[in-house]
Every structure is written in structure tokens, then in C-alpha cells.
From TrEMBL:
Keywords: ATP-binding, Nucleotide-binding. Residues 31-140 form the RuvB-like AAA+ ATPase domain. InterPro entries: AAA_ATPase_RarA/MGS1/WRNIP1 (IPR051314), P-loop_NTPase (IPR027417), RuvB-like_N (IPR008824). This is RuvB-like AAA+ ATPase domain-containing protein. CDD domains: AAA. Residues 1-26 are annotated as: Disordered.
Amino acid sequence: MPTAMEDDAKDSLFREPAEAHKTRQPLAERMRPCTIMEVLGQQHVLGSDSLLPNLIKENRVGNLILAGPPGSGKTTLATVIAAESGCKLLRVNAVTSNVAELRETLKLSRYHGSANCLLFVDEIHRFNKAQQDLLLPDVESGDA
């Protein structure tokens, strides 16, 4: 029979590492916006009465191209859009991915359906011709 001390250790075994991990994250990661209203700037696009928040609420975002310098919030915005629209976020980094990984990600995207899944391709301009050709039919059909 476990002692009270063992019970306490067991209860805190899984709770403390998650909390400790969160406090070890960089400040920028801990302060990252979690909702569309926490994203600052571009009020004509992000304001509560503007188009994007309404599309997110209705889960009708569609394809977006987010452009900007590093650190401007492109990945954060994609993460927030997925979270607020209740979609699964599938991330692909064009620098490190290959055709097999992209093919598997597109397969997952089709499985979940475009209404339940958001495909985020970071550094998309780095895709080679084979990757671009593989991505095109799913983007055109709305499956990705």
C-alpha cells in the first residue's frame, strides 16, 4: 500500500514537469497571443468587426498568404486561426521537409477535411518544383 508521501509524489509527478517546462520557455513563447483579440496591429484586418475574425468564427478562412519579416507574427497568426476555428494545425517547413513528408501531410489534410484542418507551410518559397507540383492540386481543390 502506497504511503501518503508516495501518493503526493505520484499526483505531482505529471503536473510539475509541465509547469516547470512552461517557466523555462522563452518569454516570447510564453507571451505569444492565443486569441485573435490578443494579436496587435492591423485593426482593419483583425478588429472585432472586420472580415478575418468573422471568417474565423464561421470556420471559412480559406487560403491565405501571410508575408512579412521574421518575427512579425505569421506563424502565431496561423496558430491562433487554427485554435479559434477549432481546426487541427498541420505545419510543414519547406526548408526541412521533403516530398514524402509533404505527401503524408496532404494525406492527413484530406483525411481531416479542409473544414477541420489548417495547413501551414512555412518558408513556402523554398519548395522545389516537385513539392510545388504536389501541393498545387490540393490547394486548387480546397483540400489543403
